[in-house]
Amino acid sequence: MHMDRKLRIAIDCRIATSQQGVGTAVLALAKALSDSKVAGQEYSFIVRENLRDWLAPYVYGPCKLAVIPASRLSVLKTALRPIAPLRFIWHKLRDGIAHIPVSDGYVESQKFDLVHFPDPRAYLTDLPSIYQPWDLQHLHYPQFFSKTDFGLREKLYRAFCDRASYVCVQAEWTRQDVIKRYGLPADKVVVIPWGSVFDAYKTPSVESMHATIEKYALPTQFFFYPAVTWPHKNHEAIFRALHILKSEHGTAPHVYFTGLSTEHRPALDKLARELGVFEQVHFLGFLTPEELQAVFNAATAMVFASKFEGFGLPILEAFHARLPVISSNATTLPEVAGDAALYFDPYSPVELASLMKTILDTPELREELMRKGTLVLSQHSIGDTAADFQALYERTAELSSQDHRLSPVPTAI
Predict the structure, then answer these.
(1) At what angle do helices 147-163 and 172-182 cross, to 10 degrees?
(2) What order of strands is seen across the sheet that includes strand 223-226?
(3) pLDDT tens, residue by residue, 72-106
(4) DSSP-assigned letter for residue 113
């Protein structure tokens, strides 16, 4: 597309929290676009005031921050989220206000050429848009969602996918799922794989890594699983595998978990006590980038037990750290890890226990998986991700200049 000025792209990052997968993915994209040498584009990352410090170090060059004050509703939601009784009140309130959000007018007033929504929480706009739903987990595991959450997800995801110029997902499995479930034209749904977020992080010093090992008293051998305690992340399978290893094989490896704890955490603690493995499981919470890299580097292997993923970013992070991977065979994970992981049925703790024992007992297998992981990682780069988005931004702008103009968004939906 020929323009006598730079293409102006809004990347709307008004997300609920930076301490989950979308936050790390956006951070890596910001760093890659900031380092880009493409001359014909400029990018504005829209964030709320409370998340300015999260993204600011990674935004420079052709990128800039656009800081928006938090709305009263988002302030209320943030305040209620950590407190279980008040979270119930929030869900009840949301039942009465659930609607399809419409742009507050900011992106239109700034004369952007298009808007990119890297988070499923988007809004309707008259501008051409790129929407990333990441996955349609709610349609596969509705039991993991309240009736309100399921209905809201389905209403919003469908509306935003229909409105978008392009729907962007990170794996072919997810692309086929979105096309099938939502009946979208095949050429509207595109795949842009992500690279490792570790490409964006500063490499920690040896002293820093030793400090992390001491801080968390990490043993010489342990398994690692970076995952928020959502039900689909399947921590339960790891606990049951630990019980099998302990009761049937006389071995008691430790597993360290990182990521935020949700309301599901107390049930996990209860299960660990019932299985007699509570002393073997350790929840470290959300770590700094330096600490997270240190844990990846110190672990014996990563166990990725998830029942459902739209991509599986931690697998690439493990490969970046030369960490062997044991992964469930669910959804996109075999597509991402290829032949560089050992796979198990996420509903079979017996299979998982067997693979954990094999990894512990076979150093040569660990070396082979490290080698294969490095090869798979060479096919993924956050720089390539940025380049693919730059090409998609051009295509989206071209659509808007042809006979594909969107009908105006109603003032209320």
Answers:
(1) 100
(2) 281-283, 255-258, 223-226, 301-304, 325-328, 341-344
(3) 445 444 554 555 555 554 455 455 456 899 999 99
(4) S
Q: Hey, is 346 helix, strand or coil? A: coil
pLDDT digits (tens, 9 = 90+) for 108-143: 999 999 999 999 999 999 999 999 999 999 999 999
Residue 2 pLDDT level (bands cut at 50, 70, 90): low
Where does residue 131 fall: left (phi above 0), alpha (psi -120 to 50 degrees), or beta otherwise?
beta
DSSP string, 234-285: -HHHHHHHHHHHHHHH-----EEEES---TTHHHHHHHHHHHT-GGGEEE--
Distance of CA 87 to the CA centre of its chain: 23
Angle of helix 147-163 versus helix 84-97 axis, rounded to 10: 50
Mean pLDDT of the chain: 92
Q: What is the pTM assigned to this prediction?
A: 0.90
Question: Measuring CA to CA, how many Å separate 247 from each of 30, 278, 302, 336, 356?
Answer: 47, 14, 22, 33, 14
